[in-house]
Design goal:
six-stranded mixed β-sheet; alpha/beta; Rossmann fold; 35% helix
Length: 158
């Protein structure tokens, strides 16, 4: 079984380093708005028939928290797991290869990452540009050939 569909989600709205009183960007948490937006977008995925069995996320705190909020709604059988290639440092082509290898046993995967990496991956696979505000989701069918299915941000969901 190969991955047939991937949902690419940018992490939810997060506090700035000064607002969160943290010293590093990697430690920035989600805001209350970010948590609510992510739950709404996870519900949007489910409402459109999406059933990701695995959530992969960046190691940065705001992505970890985004994955946890999405998992609470989607209840993926494979849970949520840190996936280092989503750390916003690798080119889209490399990330696509790594996701294909890691997601090989799941038909549908939700990948939670950061801009610009997640947007570059969506553009490469979907062959067009997508606006990626916080918590935006782009759904892509991968077989027989990659194509966009839908894209939505929290301001348009519901």
């Amino acid at each position: 079984m190969a991955m047939k569909r991937i949902y690419l989600m940018r992490h939810g709205h997060s506090l700035s380093t000064s607002e969160a009183r943290v010293s590093k960007d990697a430690l920035r948490p989600l805001s209350d708005k970010g948590r609510a937006d992510v739950r709404a977008m996870a519900a949007e995925i489910a409402g459109r028939g999406g059933k990701p069995s695995l959530i992969l996320h960046s190691p940065l705190l705001r992505a970890v928290q985004t994955a946890a909020e999405a998992a609470a709604v989607l209840k993926p059988s494979g849970g949520a797991a840190e996936f280092l290639p989503l750390d916003n440092t690798r080119p889209a082509e490399e990330l696509a290869r790594e996701l294909a290898l890691r997601g090989v046993s799941a038909e549908e995967v939700l990948a939670v990452g950061h801009q610009p990496q997640i947007g570059e991956l969506a553009a490469m696979l979907g062959r067009r540009l997508f606006e990626f505000t916080p918590a935006t989701v782009v759904a892509l069918e991968l077989e027989p050939a990659p194509r966009p299915l839908w894209a939505a941000g929290p301001e348009a969901a519901g």
